[in-house]
Write a structure and sequence with these properties.
This protein is of the alpha+beta class. It has one domain. The protein contains 2 helices and 3 strands; from the N terminus they run βααββ. Strand 2 and strand 3 form a beta hairpin.
Length: 69
């Protein structure tokens, strides 16, 4: 993955995150601040939440288009 690739829960360049997305990011930040204490929940989120899963195609912000992974 490249720093300019976007997918799932990421904010598309030129747009702002809504309150729901910001709350999701805050939750992830809290869980990853002490990942060992939250391992089960982090594993569950990684397996079940589409916002954290890398799809077959991601948005390349430099090129302004979707590209295969």
């Amino acid at each position: 993955m490249l720093p300019w690739d976007g997918w799932g829960g990421m904010v598309v360049p030129g747009t702002e995150a809504d309150d729901e997305r910001l709350a999701f990011f805050d939750r992830l930040a809290a869980l990853t601040a002490d990942p060992d204490a939250h391992r089960d929940e982090l594993d569950r989120l990684a397996a079940d939440d589409w916002r954290l899963q890398v799809p077959d195609r991601v948005y390349n912000a430099l090129r302004g288009r979707d590209e295969p992974v």
